[in-house]
From TrEMBL:
Coiled coil: none annotated. Its EC number is 1.1.1.22. It catalyses: UDP-alpha-D-glucose + 2 NAD(+) + H2O = UDP-alpha-D-glucuronate + 2 NADH + 3 H(+). PANTHER family: UDP-GLUCOSE 6-DEHYDROGENASE TUAD, UDP-GLUCOSE 6-DEHYDROGENASE YWQF. InterPro entries: 6-PGluconate_DH-like_C_sf, NAD(P)-bd_dom_sf, UDP-Glc/GDP-Man, UDP-Glc/GDP-Man_DH_C, UDP-Glc/GDP-Man_DH_C_sf, UDP-Glc/GDP-Man_DH_dimer, UDP-Glc/GDP-Man_DH_N, UDPglc_DH_bac. SMART domains: UDPG_MGDP_dh_C. Pathway: Nucleotide-sugar biosynthesis; UDP-alpha-D-glucuronate biosynthesis; UDP-alpha-D-glucuronate from UDP-alpha-D-glucose: step 1/1. The keyword DNA damage does not apply. The active site is at C259 (nucleophile). Residues 312-414 form the UDP-glucose/GDP-mannose dehydrogenase C-terminal domain. This is UDP-glucose 6-dehydrogenase. It comes from Anoxybacillus flavithermus. GO terms for biological process: polysaccharide biosynthetic process.
């Protein structure tokens, strides 16, 4: 198949690379000339483990190409994947500006029948709207629209593409659905056929359910702290029930990133637009917003006030193995610490190049864990990077003014911390106060 992928963000680039790797000829289109030039050199614009070797391998095999000339690419395509961003509007609804522009660009260039596959996350009914746009813009060309939502985890996107649970294909035309199914068959992943609107809803419903599990276990963690239970033991016991499962039952300071916050709010907005009050999902969102401030509450309870305190922030990206800062807890924590007149020193193994324009200008950046911790009154762990999880706890004792840790990701076993003169406050577990 001669495939074109529009957009080279997390979804588009991973999709293009993966489809090339299973044997298709793939051209990735982006309007950013500098970005395209870097990709032609095998340099990924996103931090995603394993993606650059696959890019280079498939470029060398003449299966993967990058261009800004979308018009020429569309004319030769058998199938076009749209993977542009659908960011959140101020009202919580998905912004379809980039998607509709991609539709217009495709319509202005195609000269033969083609299948357009929507990878972008879109509100229910959007793919039918795209179909209507194509009929109006290019009535002489037959264009089938297929919904093929993605279920990738940033930081694990390559693995998820080749080892996913299912591939969802939503289509009104059986022939178009069969073509898209054939494209994906080499992945060896179960393919689920459904109608277009159900496919659109599967994406939102899946993310909303996972977000619900996260907010639920965080509420359980907050109760555990008050009754003296251990949330990790509780989650382990719950997860052994096959009806519940162990995934997404890890207590912490909430979810972030490009999907869960945006998709939960968008689904709540979709419900509101049809006069349905999605009370459960609104509660999930509210719980998450509160949970991101949990370490601030713990620190203020411990110190009384944070004015003049030097606080080390360990981890800035919303999760490990990505440099994505969208909806990261660090954005909230840094702002609130500064509002409390604390000094904030931050370090992240990967995201440092992405933080200057999103974090307050008063934040000081360190080049290592040790530098961030030096003479700090407290440390807050916001991202569970392996560098932090594997850090010898003696580093906190040796570098900090007072080795007080507020761990928002439960990186350390309590019995390990108990061996050191450290104060340790985590989520849903008893505190350890070994400082004399």
């Amino acid at each position: 198949m001669n495939i074109v992928v529009v957009g080279t963000g997390y979804v588009g680039l991973v999709t293009g690379v993966a489809l090339a790797h299973i044997g298709h000829r793939v051209t990735c289109v982006d309007v950013d000339k500098e970005k395209v030039e870097r990709m032609r050199q095998g340099i990924s614009p996103i931090y995603e483990p394993g993606i650059e070797p696959l890019m280079k391998e498939n470029m060398e095999a003449n299966r993967l190409f990058f261009t800004t000339d979308g018009a020429s690419a569309y004319q030769e395509a058998d199938v076009i994947y749209i993977a542009v961003g659908t960011p959140e509007n101020e009202d919580g609804f998905a912004d379809l500006t980039y998607l509709k522009q991609a539709v217009r660009d495709i319509a202005s260039a195609v000269t033969k029948d083609v299948i357009v596959v929507t990878k972008s996350t879109v509100p229910v009914g959007t793919n039918h709207e795209i179909q209507r746009m194509f009929k109006q813009l290019v009535p002489h060309v037959h264009i089938d629209v297929v919904s093929n939502p993605e279920f990738l985890r940033e930081g694990s996107a390559i693995h998820d593409t080749f080892h996913g649970d299912r591939i969802v294909i939503g289509a009104d035309d059986e022939r178009a659905a069969a073509v898209v199914a054939d494209i994906h068959r080499p992945f060896g992943i179960p393919i689920f056929h459904t109608d277009i609107r159900s496919a659109e809803m599967i994406k939102y419903a899946s993310n909303a359910f996972l977000a619900t599990k996260i907010s639920f276990i965080n509420e359980i963690a907050n109760i555990c702290e008050k009754v003296g239970a251990d949330v990790e033991q509780v989650a382990a016991g719950m997860g052994m029930d096959q009806r519940i499962g162990s995934s997404f039952l890890r207590a912490g300071i909430g979810y972030g990133g490009s999907c869960f916050p945006k998709d939960t709010k968008a689904l709540a907005k979709i419900a509101a637009n049809i006069d349905h009050d999605f009370e459960l999902l609104k509660a999930v969102i509210e719980v998450n917003n509160k949970q991101q401030r949990k370490l601030i509450e713990k620190a203020k309870k411990r110190f009384g006030h944070l004015a003049g305190k030097k606080i080390a922030l360990l981890g800035l990206s919303f999760k490990p193995n990505t440099d994505d800062m969208r909806e990261a807890a660090s954005l909230v924590v840094a702002r609130e610490l500064l509002a409390e007149q604390a000094t904030v020193v931050a370090y992240d193994p990967i995201a440092m190049g992405k933080v200057a324009h999103v974090l307050p200008k008063e934040v000081i950046y360190a080049s290592s864990v040790e530098e961030a911790l030096q003479d700090a009154d407290a440390a807050m762990i916001l991202t569970e990077w392996d560098e932090f999880r594997q850090l010898d706890l003696s580093v906190y004792v040796n570098e900090m003014k007072t080795p007080i840790i507020f761990d928002g990701r439960n990186c350390y076993a309590l019995h390990d911390v108990a061996r050191y003169p450290i104060e340790y406050y985590s989520i849903g577990r008893k505190p350890i106060t070994n400082i004399k």
